Amino acid sequence: MGARSVEGETDRHRHRETERRTGQRILAPAPHHAPAPAPAPTPGHSCTPGTPLDVLKQEFLASTATTPKPSRHPSPHGEATMGGCMSTPDTSAKERSDEIDRQIEEDGKRFKRDCKILLLGSGESGKTTIVKQMKIIHKEGFTKEELALYISIVHRNVFDSAVQVVSYMKKIGLECIEGGNRVLADKILNHKLPQPETDDQPILSGEIAQAISQLWKDPIIPKVMDEHSSDFYLMDSAPYFFGEVLRIGTAGYLPNETDVLRARAKTVGIKETRFNMGQLSIHMFDVGGQRSERKKWIHCFESVTSIIFCTALSEYDQVLLEEKNQNRMNESLLLFESVINSRWFLRTSIILFMNKTDVFKVKLNKVPLERYFPEYTGGNDINKAAKYILWKFMQANRARLSVYPHLTQATDTSNIRLVFAAVKETILQNALKDSGIL
């Protein structure tokens, strides 16, 4: 990216303000070659979120402390002064001040670096949830009007999830334990949601919401979801929405931020989001993860600063919606391999988000990872399982690019805020590297 350190640039601006007040110039920091960054993670290394760069930054900043330059203006005693305040004619001082103002403005424009980040990954890996978090963390969150646009999406998520559970039960011949719930199950299956004219129109009636809530309390439903989660598709947020269905089904319902983060709608095409992280102006592109959407990525590849590749750890036992015989984790590995070894990304930092750690932790106790990856021998230990999956991804890195892995829970704002602080450091580090400072 060829940018200089944000802190260094701030010092330069401070020096120019001092020049304006004192009428003398201050030397810019001398270039410094800091120690090389730590090597990329290897299969055996821990995949704990983030690698702190505080020590590196402190050493770099300490080594570039400014040294004052002797004044060009003669002192009354005929000697050069160091840092002394000199009186100069008003016209000369104004010209110098104006020159500094212009230079500060030019430097500000030049240093306001545009960083292009691509969010890549297979479908339902959490890419769009990351974009929503950026809006919450780095912008002003969602307005009431924007929240209202998720009403029909949330309603459909709740209803479709209920239909999927009941349909699977019918398929394998299971009935609700409570007799009255069998009637409610049939009622849900036979119900058709209306098509809203706009996204802010409610489509889930209070009556159907009551039926779903009652059905959710039947002991057979959690049992089906626990023991048969690998056998049929159900969105990860279904348990959350089932638990909130009475609130969601009330008249005048307005989604909250948690509802929005958990809502699921297929991304079609390419969605761009812009926000600032300090002096970095971020252009983040969310692209559709389904196979039919991937051909649209290609024109986004030029001048990419970083790629955030999302994979859902919890998908090790699931299959694609588009191809029922293809394991989702294997599909994600194939996609990662094609991205990281592409000629487009030879100078691009690859940030790997190993997402849905919350779902992954729960699932490991019910669905053994070794059932789908026989070479794994770590049992239900989440750290061993995550390291194994990281190793699988690193095996695909034939280009030997630097990969920065993070364990993430995209629906947790505090987790994503912490992770993106580390992502900012990664971008800064690579900027220093590209500029020759590192």
Structure notes:
The two termini are 13 Å apart. Among the domains are: 115-142 and 268-434, P-loop containing nucleotide triphosphate hydrolases (Rossmann fold), CATH 3.40.50; 151-254, GI Alpha 1, domain 2-like (Orthogonal Bundle), CATH 1.10.400.10. It is built from 17 helices and 6 strands. Helix 1 (6-22) packs antiparallel against helix 3 and helix 6 packs across helix 7. The model is unreliable at 1-10 and 20-89 (pLDDT under 50). It has 438 residues and is of the alpha/beta class. A 6-stranded mixed sheet has the order 2-3-1-4-5-6, sandwiched between helices. Mg(2+) binds at residues 128, 267. G proteins are composed of 3 units; alpha, beta and gamma. The alpha chain contains the guanine nucleotide binding site. Residues 1-22 have a biased composition (Basic and acidic residues).
Give the helices and strands, then pairings.
Elements: H1 6-22, H2 54-63, H3 90-111, E1 113-121, H4 127-138, H5 144-148, H6 151-172, H7 179-190, H8 206-216, H9 220-227, H10 238-243, H11 245-248, H12 257-262, E2 270-277, E3 280-287, H13 291-294, E4 306-312, H14 328-340, E5 349-355, H15 357-364, H16 382-395, E6 403-407, H17 413-434
Parallel strand pairs: 1-3, 1-4, 4-5, 5-6
Antiparallel strand pairs: 2-3
Helix pairs in contact: 1-3, 6-7, 7-8
